[in-house]
Amino acid sequence: MVERAPDFVAVTPLGDFEPFTRGAGDGVGVNLSVQPARAMVQLFARNGKADDVAKNLKLEARPGQATICKNFVTFPLSSGQWLLVSNADDPEKFAPAIEKKISGIGYISEQSDARICIRVSGLKARDLMSRGCRLDLHESVISKGFCAQTQMAQVGVLIHQVDDAPIYDLYVYAGFAKPFWQWLIDISSQFGISAENKGE
Amino acid sequence: MHQIDCPWCGVRDETEFQYQGDATVIRPAPDASEETFFKYVYVRDNPKGWHTEWWHHLGGCRQWVKVVRHTVSHEIHATGRAQDKLPVPDEGPKS
Q1: A175 vs A185: CA distance, rounded Å
Q2: Is A13 part of any domain?
Q3: CB A142 within 8 A of CB A159
Q4: Domain containing A68 — which CATH number?
Q5: A78 contacts on B by Cβ (under 8 Å)
Q6: Is residue B60 less than 8 Å (CB to CB) from chain A?
Q7: Domains of chain B, earliest start first
Q8: Are A115 and A160 in contact (CB under 8 A)?
C-alpha cells in the first residue's frame, strides 16, 4: 500500500493571530495590517547590464525611489539589483514573465514566500517608525515613493512610503516576521493599536 | 557612533555595518611562500592614524564599502566602492 504524503497548506508566519483593537488615551493612533501574500522576485543584472535591465523593464536605477509599474512595484536594493513585487492576480506567471523580459542581460530569484509585508498607517505612524528606524523619515526629507533597506529592532527591513499620509509598507524576511510583529505591537502600545490580518 | 557614507545608500549609522578589516592587503601570487601566505592571512598592522578598511553594509545594500578612517579620532576622510582608490591624507585628522 502506498502511503500518501500529507497535504501541506501554505501559511504565512503571521497567519494565526486574531485581529484586535487596543485604544490608548487618544484612541487608536496606529493601524498595523499584515498584507496579502504577493508574488516577488529579486532581479539581478549581469555585469555591465544594469542600465539595459532598467531600460527593458522601465525601472528606476537610482537608490531610494520605488517605481510603480503596470503590474508590479520595484525597489532598487543595490547596484544592479531590484526587488519586484507583483500586484497581479496570477502570481505563478509573474516570475516567468519577468525572466523572459531580461533574458541574457539579467537573472531572477523567486522570493514570493521570503518576505512578509506589514502596512503601518494612522496618525502616529511616523512616530512609531521614528522609534525603531534610524533613517530620517520627516516629511521635509522624504515623500511618497521613498524606499530603503535598513534595520529596525535588529531586523532587516525594506521600507516603502506608500503615501504621504504617511503610510509605510515594511517588508520583513518571513523568518523574522513574528518577533518583528511582536516588537511592533509592543512599541506602538502607547499610541493605541488596531491590528488586522489581510494575509492568508 | 560612526556615520558612514555608503556609495549606494547614503549616510547610515554604524550599526548597519560590520567591520571587515584592513583593505590594503593584497593576495600574494599562487606560488608565493608559506610565510608570505601566513602574513597575508594572519598578520596585520595596527596603525595609529589613517587606516583604509572594509565595512560590510549588512543592514542595507550588502555591498562592501571602503573607508579611510583615523584610528584615534575616528574621523572618516573618504568612503567608496570596492574598486575605488581612495586618497589617504598625509597629516592627522582635522580635530
Answers
A1: 17
A2: no
A3: no
A4: 3.30.70.1400
A5: 8, 61-63
A6: yes
A7: 3-80 (3.30.2270.10)
A8: no
